[in-house]
Design goal:
Blueprint (H helix, E strand, L loop, with lengths): L1 E2 L2 E2 L7 E7 L7 E5 L5 E5 L13 H4 L2 E3 L2 E6 L4 E6 L4 E4 L5 E7 L1
Length: about 100
């Protein structure tokens, strides 16, 4: 295995992601589960309790995903979900995308 940063064979200290790309218009909103129960709405680059400053775009928009992450296109009436078998970090950094991180 390799990437632009060099050899990945040792897999030490590497984080791997899987990214799903769709044509859904999600309006910067995605949903993650709350310990496998309800879905919580997440809005990219937004915090309800303070003024958000975009310093670390990726890290600030990652959330724990216990068993599912969902994006919805309300105009089309379509949802796309990824169901996981263990906890991951997840986000939707671009409209229509879901990204899950797996630490090695």
């Amino acid at each position: 295995m390799s990437n632009d940063d060099g050899d990945l064979k040792d897999a030490i200290g590497k984080d791997f992601i899987i990214r799903y790309t769709t044509d859904l218009n999600t309006n910067d909103i995605f949903y993650t589960d709350s310990n496998g129960r309800e879905l919580l709405e997440r809005r990219r680059n937004y915090r309800p309790t303070f003024t958000y400053t975009d310093v670390e775009h990726q890290a600030a928009n990652y959330y724990p995903v216990t068993n599912r992450i969902v994006i919805k296109d309300k105009n089309k009436g379509v949802e796309f979900a990824v169901i996981t078998d263990r906890t991951h970090g997840g986000s939707s950094l671009v409209n229509g995308q879901i990204e899950l991180m797996v630490s090695s």
